[in-house]
Design a protein that fits this description.
The structure holds 2 protein chains of 2 kinds. By secondary structure, chain A is mainly alpha-helical. Chain A has 2 domains: 137 residues, no CATH class; 91 residues, no CATH class. Helix content of chain A is 72%, strand content 0%. Chain A has 12 helices and no strands. In chain A, α1 packs across α8. Chain B has a single domain, classed as Orthogonal Bundle (Arp2/3 complex 21 kDa subunit ARPC3). By secondary structure, chain B is mainly α. In chain B, a hairpin with a 4-residue loop joins β3 and β4. The chains are: A mainly alpha, B mainly alpha. Chains A and B meet through α4, α7, α8, α10 and α11 of A and α1, α2, α3 and α6 of B.
Chain lengths: 256, 263
Amino acid sequence: MRLPSVDHSATSGSSWLHRASISDKVSLPLTGFGVAAISASPVPLVSVYAVLMIVAWSASLPLARIVMATILPVPMVGLYALSHWQSDWSVIAVILAKGMVTVEASLLLMLTTPAPDLLAGPTRWLPAILSQSLVLTYRAVFTLWDRLASVQRAIQVRGGIRHRRAHGFPWEAYGTPLLRLPQVGGIIVGMAVIRAIDLSASYEDALRLRGYRGLMHPTRRDGARRFPAAFILWGGCASIVGIAAAVRLMGWDLAG
Amino acid sequence: MTHIMVGDGVLPWWLSGAGILASVVLVTIASRQVTRTGSRRAIPATGVMTALMVVVMSIEIVPIGYELHGTVLAGIILGPWFGAISSLLFNVVRAFLGDGAITNIGLNTVVTWLEMAVGSMVFSRLRPFAYRGRASLCGGIATAVSLSLSTLVFLAIIALSGVEPASAVHTGSFDVATGTFDPDIRSGGLVEVHLPGSGEHPEATVAGLTPFTWFAFATLFLGALGWAIEGLVTGVTVGFIARIRPALIGLAAGSDGRGRPTE
């Protein structure tokens, strides 16, 4: 999923999950991670996928985008799963479901937590060089998106990607042939990189002049935890992982 | 770009653990190196190149399932040590936005770093030839070499992921009198030992080849198309940077590489 749309969802939402404390929302990826690590049957994984979808729906998150994001890695994960083919489709289903659940669980955290809140913790305990690079990475993503979006618009108004002259434009639009796309793409990337490095260096200089020492501060204090959200998230996490562990330990064959 | 795209709990724990350990060692060494010798001015470039990989990550060449990432370009600009930091940050972001596999961050950091380091090393070897408009060619060669090597490492990791230490070895017994091993553990030998590759469950085959062999063929075939595309884009980008800002990729401005000024 594209970082700008994730950032927009995280900063513009006001649901119960958006308002929940980050230390409670960490339970979401932990749930996905725990269930994926424990489960050997597709049924618990599919169930957790559905439960997390309900959580996303209750927080008014874009369900279609989440589903798309969880499906996108399926071809590559599927290829890996087929490389371990042992005449058992349930193994393939488990490998695919594990990938989908972990993507979904991570996205729920990212889609409901503004980046400064996510980065505030790591900037405190990471080595300075890592934390500063992380903060500048976050900033540079938006600079690069902006540059690439401008170029994409420029290609569109020149007639898009086509071999022949484009019709329907009020100006002469000859388009960009597909075979020239790598060349055009290389120049675009080169321009974007040079511009973004210059901007990023100026940005860091400006931050330092204003007293920046490599730390980010969260948009709100984490102490203001809300009891129902904490209870739902951690209680749900413990229950789901516990059930998955029980299913595994008891050897229940839920796939039938 | 090569990375292991499977969820948590799929790869064996020992493999994921080894990857995490290797990445911690790598990033620790890299942090010390860049703190000792690196320029602070490279930090913004590290952020930008990591961001570039995050942005390009969302462009997938759908028919062949290949994702461009610009890892070799990042390696050429950042070098191997800042590349290690960039590799870790990129894989952390990618785990939360793309694959979700937190336990694979270590392995992916190592594989991505390998691409960057090999790309950087090959390009630095080719740097004397990268003047007079040949920077694109050198960038393309560095990309192709680096991606093909990292794909082989990727395949080795996938092959290892099918190995369970407890089952990679098979039971048998050692006969003291004859000094030989007998696969039958009930044969009364002194010590039960394990011999690799003598599993009771023969691996399933498709058209005479194991699934892993098919996977390796598919990866190399589709990968080769991807390397060509990525090599082309990276080559053009390196050529463009060589003309506009040659110092960014270690080339001397206004020189032909032999100390003679260009016109």
